[in-house]
Design brief:
Radius of gyration: 20 Å
Strand content: under 5%
Structural class: mainly alpha
CATH superfamily of the largest domain: Cytochrome c-like domain
Helix content: 25-40%
CATH architecture of the largest domain: Orthogonal Bundle
Number of strands: 0
């Protein structure tokens, strides 16, 4: 659970948070359809502007009431001051019943009761918060899922020298030293976890457009080689 959720006790939401279904995966196209219910008040994407509600670009990781050029309700200002940030878990709670999280909100939206609709909408909105600093584990929408990866793929023995040759694209974002200044480290990551994660991006079980593109260009042996390189990389 993310740090900001711990601050929600002041909003008497602990029980609600415990009952919420956080979005680990979802369907972007279906989420775009769900967003039709939101577009009367919110814009997202290229050229998005404030309407009666703030634009939703860069939403993930943003503090509630975090845009200086939008006039938020006092309820949302208090939520932001209390530490509320927008991530998949907090958005799931909010989208189910907006007034439960911010009783004084001017939003007339009654919420999305269907967990699948919420998951799809969250994943749709997530793509407008992408940033190189968020690769690969920006938010719960990019967390792992149970896998059914072929054991033969997991059994492949990767060539670390070949992995080093391939690693240039990875280290444009991930530090070979293992540093994680806004970008999660993949150095010394166990080989099996690396392979499972990359194949999840490859098959789009993990939702991150950039990582899906990168993984989609890699074959099984190349992924195994990268895993062998990074798991033993000396700082």
């Amino acid at each position: 659970m993310r740090g900001p959720l711990r601050h929600l006790a002041g909003f008497a939401l602990l029980g609600l948070v415990a009952q919420s279904v956080c979005a680990d995966t979802g369907d972007i196209a279906a989420g775009e359809q769900v967003f039709q219910q939101c577009k009367g008040c919110h814009q997202v994407g290229a050229g998005a502007k404030h309407r009666s509600g703030p634009h939703l670009n860069g939403l993930f990781g943003r503090k509630a009431a975090g845009l200086d050029d939008f006039r938020y309700s006092k309820s949302f200002q208090r939520a932001g001051a209390g530490g509320l940030e927008w991530h998949a878990d907090t958005l799931d709670v909010f989208l189910e019943n907006p007034r439960a999280m911010a009783t004084g909100t001017r939003m007339s939206f009654r919420g999305l009761k269907n967990p699948e609709d919420r998951a799809n909408l969250i994943v749709y909105l997530r793509q407008f918060s992408d940033d190189p600093a968020n690769i690969p584990e920006a938010d719960p929408t990019a967390t792992g899922v149970d896998h059914d990866l072929d054991p033969a793929i997991l059994a492949l023995v990767g060539d670390p020298e070949y992995g080093e040759y391939l690693s240039g694209e990875c280290t444009t974002c991930h530090q070979a030293t293992g540093g994680d200044d806004g970008i999660p480290s993949i150095t010394l990551w166990p080989e099996d976890q690396f392979v499972v994660a990359m194949h999840a991006y490859k098959t789009k079980q993990r939702n991150h457009p950039v990582m899906q593109m990168i993984a989609g260009r890699l074959g099984d042996e190349e992924i195994a080689a990268l895993a062998a390189h990074f798991t033993n990389l000396e700082n």
